[in-house]
Write a structure and sequence with these properties.
20% of the residues lie in helices and 34% in strands. α2 packs across α3. The chain has a 9-stranded mixed β-sheet. By secondary structure, it is of the alpha+beta class. β8 and β9 form a beta hairpin.
C-alpha cells in the first residue's frame, strides 16, 4: 500500500510528497520511528531533484528491504540485466560496451500497454549507489521519461535494512491527466520494487 508522508508517531519524515511503499503500512501511514536513522534525507533529496515542466508529472517512492546494501545494489546496477528483478522485462540487449550513454533495448512481457522500450544509461555511480536512465524510444506512451534510483544504508524499527529511493519525471500524454499518468507509473515502480525486495531478501537468506 502507499502512504503519503506526514508528521506523526514520532518518526522522521522524507520530503513532502514522497510515498512509502512498504507492504506493512496503511494508506495514512507516516514513516515509522527510526526509519531515517541512518539516512541523510537532505542528501537523498538532492540526488532526486528533477526539473519538471507544466506538462509533466513526477513522484518519489521509498522501499525498505531486509537485505544488505551491497546485495541490493548489485541487482539495481545491472543495467544490462534488468530482468534480474523487474518482472515485466522478458529480454534486454545492450548496444556496445556498458558505459554512460549506453543504450539498451528492452522487450516487455504482456500485461502492459507496451512491447519494447529503448533506454539510455544516464548515470551509474558505485560510490553513491545511484542509477539513472532515460527512455529514448519504444512502443509505449512514456515520453521524456527519466528515473533515478538510489540505494542507502537504512534502519527500520531499530533494525538495519536497505532503503531504496526511486523517483521519476515523465510527460503527461495527450488525453490523460497527471493523476492517471502517475498512477500508471506508480503501479509499475511498486511492482518492480516489491520484486527487488523479494529477490534480494531471498538471496540474503540463502545459506
Amino acid at each position: 500500500m502507499v502512504g503519503l508522508l506526514s508528521n506523526g508517531r514520532g518518526g522522521e519524515d522524507y520530503p513532502r510528497g514522497w510515498r512509502l511503499i512498504d507492504d506493512d503500512v496503511g494508506p495514512s501511514a507516516s514513516f515509522p520511528a527510526g526509519s531515517l536513522a541512518a539516512v541523510d534525507s537532505d542528501y537523498v533529496r538532492r540526488l532526486h531533484q528533477h526539473d519538471t515542466t507544466p506538462n509533466q508529472c513526477s513522484a518519489t517512492f521509498v522501499k525498505h528491504i531486509k537485505a544488505p546494501v551491497h546485495l541490493v545494489w548489485s541487482l539495481v546496477r545491472s543495467f544490462d540485466e534488468p530482468q534480474k528483478y523487474k518482472p515485466f522485462v522478458s529480454r534486454c540487449v545492450v548496444r556496445g560496451d556498458l558505459e554512460i550513454g549506453s543504450v539498451r533495448e528492452v522487450n516487455v512481457k504482456s500485461g502492459l500497454p507496451a512491447t519494447t522500450s529503448t533506454e539510455r544509461l544516464e548515470q551509474l555511480d558505485d560510490d553513491q549507489h545511484l542509477l539513472s536512465i532515460r527512455i529514448v524510444g519504444g512502443d509505449h506512451r512514456l515520453k521524456n521519461y527519466s528515473s533515478i534510483i538510489t540505494v542507502h544504508n537504512g534502519s527500520l524499527n531499530g533494525n538495519p535494512c536497505t532503503t531504496v529511493v526511486e523517483s521519476f519525471v515523465v510527460d503527461i500524454p495527450e488525453g490523460n491527466t497527471a493523476e492517471e499518468t502517475c498512477y500508471f507509473v506508480e503501479a509499475v515502480i511498486k511492482c518492480n520494487l516489491k520484486s527487488l525486495a523479494d529477490v534480494a531478501e531471498r538471496l540474503a537468506n540463502q545459506p
